[in-house]
Amino acid sequence: MPKTKILASAQDVENAFYEALERADLELMMSIWADDEEIVCVHPGGPRLIGYVAIRDAWRRIFENGNLFDIHISQLSKVTTPFAVMHSVLEEIRLRSKADLMAPVTATNLYVRGAMGWRMVSHHASPVPPLPTETKSEAPKVLH
Amino acid sequence: MPKTKILASAQDVENAFYEALERADLELMMSIWADDEEIVCVHPGGPRLIGYVAIRDAWRRIFENGNLFDIHISQLSKVTTPFAVMHSVLEEIRLRSKADLMAPVTATNLYVRGAMGWRMVSHHASPVPPLPTETKSEAPKVLH
What is the DSSP letter of B131? Predict the structure, then answer.
């Protein structure tokens, strides 16, 4: 796999991340994560997973379910620094077997540039209310 | 307010963030966020909020509810770069009026160092299963 290509920028890592997710490609997925004990992955409604081994194990279980998803990414907000880039995106996830079911999710993705190029170090995804209700003036439904 | 003190490091910003949350102190809360249109805040179960104005408005509404919380932060995982630091924490949030009710939340907090010192640029909080179920081998309950 052309790691030199997919790790050339934070955006390239993000593109590969969602490509791996749509293809249920575990090797591609894990090639874009930093091999680090501090990396974090939170799947929608799931527990917080820490470290490369735990994160790989969770993706393996997800991909083994055999479901294939179509994912539309939109509304990018980003913060860029020399060695770290944060992307906040909205994910519209559709099961290919049930394309009429769409789950809106917001994901905060963090990428860090290291000796090996750019890698994902954090993916935090959680369900959000349907998109029409996402407005800057709406009161959040929250505990805090 | 001693901004020079609370903005001296990412950890200092995080300490001030949770202090502001426990005190329902809107001015302290907003003093630790970057004044930027790209900053992101996701409250548990709420919509994604982008930009200083929207984030301030949401915190104002939350604090105006009059609820006071006790928050216990634990299980920090962090990724550090020269200009950006990511903290992943577990928040145990208790309403002071109902201390027996605890909502476990995981939060991904991103801090960036700029000309004005360290500021929060992203806070993504979402509910997680009860802590005992958070193990590195558990299959996440997820769409993806």
Answer: G
DSSP string, A68-126: -EEEEEEEEEEEE-SSEEEEEEEEEEEETTEEEEEEEEEEEEEEEEETTEEEEEEEEEE
Q: Which of residues 93-112 of A touch B (CB under 8 A)?
A: 93, 103, 105-106, 108, 110, 112
Question: Is residue A49 a contact partner of residue A41, using CB atoms and an 8 Å limit?
Answer: yes
A127/A37 Cα distance (integer angstroms): 26
Interface contact flag, A133 B106, Cβ < 8 Å: no
- Distance (Å, whole) CA B25 – CA B42: 18
Residue B124 forms contact with A (CB below 8 Å): yes
- pLDDT tens per residue, range B11-30: 999 999 999 999 999 999 99
Model-level pTM? 0.87
- Pick from B43, B88, B93: CB nearest A48: B88
Residue A66 burial by Cβ neighbours in a 10 Å radius (0-12, 13-18, 19+): exposed
- Structural domains present in chain B: 10-127 (3.10.450.50)
- The interface predicted TM-score of the complex, written ipTM, equals 0.86
Q: Are strands B69-80 and B117-127 parallel, antiparallel or unpaired?
A: unpaired
Q: Among partner residues A40, A86, A138, which is closest to B122 by beta-carbon distance?
A: A86
Establish, for the pair of chains A and B, how many residue pairs have beta carbons separated by less than 8 Å.
206
**Residues with Cβ < 8 Å from A12, sequence gap 6 or more?**
A5, A6, A118
Nearest Cα residue in chain A from B123: A108
pLDDT in tens, A78-119: 999 999 999 999 999 998 888 777 889 999 999 999 888 999
The A residues from 67 to 96 touching B (CB cutoff 8 Å) are 69, 71, 75, 77-79, 81-84, 86, 88, 90-91, 93
